[in-house]
Amino acid sequence: MTDEDRVLAAAAAVLDDRDVVVDRDILGSYRHDRSTGSPAGEPFAVVFPRTTDQVAAIMTAAHRHRVPVVPRGAGSGLSGGSNAIDGSLVLCLERMREVIGVDVVNGYVETQPGIMNTELRDHVAGHGLWYAPDPASKDFCSIGGNVNTNAGGLCCVKYGTTRESVLGLEVVLADGRVTNLGRRTVKGVAGYDLAGMMVGSEGTLGIVTMARLRLRPLPPPPVTAVAVFADTADAGRAAADVMAEVTPSVLELMDNATIRIVENWRPMGLDTSAGCVLMAQFDNGPGAAEVDADRFVAIAERAGASEIHRSETPEEAEMLLGARRMAILAIEEAGDWLLDDIAVPRSRLAEALRRIEDISAKREVSICTFGHAGDGNLHPTIITERGDIDARGRAMEAFDDILEVALDLGGTITGEHGIGNLKQRMLARELDEVAHDLHARMKAAWDPDNILNPGKSLPRW
User: What's the distance, Cα to Cα, between the start and end of the chain in Å?
Assistant: First the structure.
């Protein structure tokens, strides 16, 4: 019996038959996430635990026999973080979907990791509460994946990324031990912030089996304003000026290429002649939201906006942002695509947008740039004709060029999608030598045998 067989037998001993899959045709669906350009290997099985005890039993066996395990949620990631490696066991948490409880008085929810972001938001809304992080993929991304990538979203400019909403985590370690990290209180500094270390670790340090997440009161209906610019750099400068004067709950950007692709995919009357649009929302209540929206309008006009629209109803406000949320879905239909994820200081946003346009011309590829202008997080997405191998090579060159721009402008190579196995070489450029060493030591402390998602997240140097 091989080590893989022994681990599979241990999994079968604690799982229902339907929760252990070895069929090659089915395994193919669990080899890779939504990213393109990221390598994926061949797993020998995928298992679907439903409880923390089952996860612990599987990890105990995997640790004993030194079998690599790739944790996986909904598979909506965009950096190859949950891609299988050859000879691995994929441990998929999509069937751990229970909401354990909502504590209204203390303002948190405890949930298993497999529930979708939107489902959790809808659940807590029934208690009059709100979970703030809202990735554009919120309808099909899981809470566990959000924790593992420190997902952001449209509202993070005001409410922060997933990390700011995590109070505590239940985690199964590489050797099968279970630990509870974090706290139930809003404040707490007892010991190192191990829960914070888990957030964004992409399944390389442990497996999250329960998340205790901070909730907020439901915000009032937002006021939305959209400013149209002839030039993307003008929109970038306006975004920096807005953030210096007001605090929107959302500040998003779409360039002309993105506008045209979204409108072509799902017509909704977008102005396809616009060079760039800047979308802002303000949710600080009646009166105050209108005042801040007026300030946004004044700033946009000062920066050269050619048109400005204000929402009249909550439905209209959601429709205006809906176009932004559709960007990736529309791009997927347009051709072969490669999505980047950089963040730059807001003061360098205009320069980043201009240089991305230069890269598009230099590499002779189409680049749709959209993203979270309020925190300098852009998603330049390179589109080429399906099956064009030469164009695919130019797209990869453009992808690296964009990462170089981020580093050159004092930014980072990933704002919210993570490193996975797509950006490890460039991560080694972003981190200094001491940081390299610290990363290696932390991985060794949590997972000394390197069985948890090996080959992911860490710099390749």
Answer: 36
Supply 355's token pair: 């240089």
Q: Which DSSP string corresponds to 212-248?
A: EEE-EEPPPPPEEEEEEES-HHHHHHHHHHHHHH---
CATH code of the region 3-92: 3.30.43.10
Is the distance from CB of 452 to CB of 69 less than 8 angstroms? Answer: yes
Question: At 96, which amino acid appears?
Answer: M
**pLDDT value for 419:** 95
Domain ranges of the chain: 3-92, 99-217, 223-408
Longest dimension (CA), the chain: 72
Same fold, 99-217 and 223-408: no
φ, ψ of residue 138 in degrees (nearest 5): -55, -25
**R_g of the chain computed on alpha carbons:** 22
**What is the secondary structure of 67-133 as a DSSP string?**
--EEEESSS--SSSTT---TTPEEEE-TT---EEEEETTTTEEEE-TTSBHHHHHHHHHTTTEE---
CATH number of 99-217: 3.30.465.10
Question: What amino acid is encoded at 401 in this protein?
Answer: D
CATH 3.40.462.40 is right for the domain spanning 223-408: yes
Per-residue pLDDT tens digits for 339-395 = 999 999 999 999 999 999 999 999 999 999 999 999 999 999 999 999 999 999 999
